[in-house]
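Record 1 of the preview.
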Amino acid sequence: MATSAWALDTNVLVRYCAQDDAKQSASATRFIERELSASKRGFISLVVLMETVWVMQSRYAADNTLVTELLTDLLDTAELEVQEAPAVRKALVRFSEGGVDLHDCLIVSLAELRNAKVVTFDAKAAKRLSMELLR
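->
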């Protein structure tokens, strides 16, 4: 079984995904493509993943389709290990259907792994994601 040798920070992952800064993007790309391998993987925590999504949406106006493609590519990259990957994949399916935020989809997917139901005050999320609306 492969282990993670490195954990990537959000700024490294954003530079790699966005290719928006000549020097930092080149460094991030070189590191990810040369230093990481299927046996020496880069770990992407859920915090880094969600921060990256936020940056891509807020700074680069990435739509749901682009976010879904980007995260699917990260999940499918042998050199990367995404924390709770099965829950992320399940959340992406819900997210790609539209009408809810990725973080809400991930909250539900993570809860389901633990056989738990999410309680919320968010009526829209409760309806769309089968959360329990707390009144």
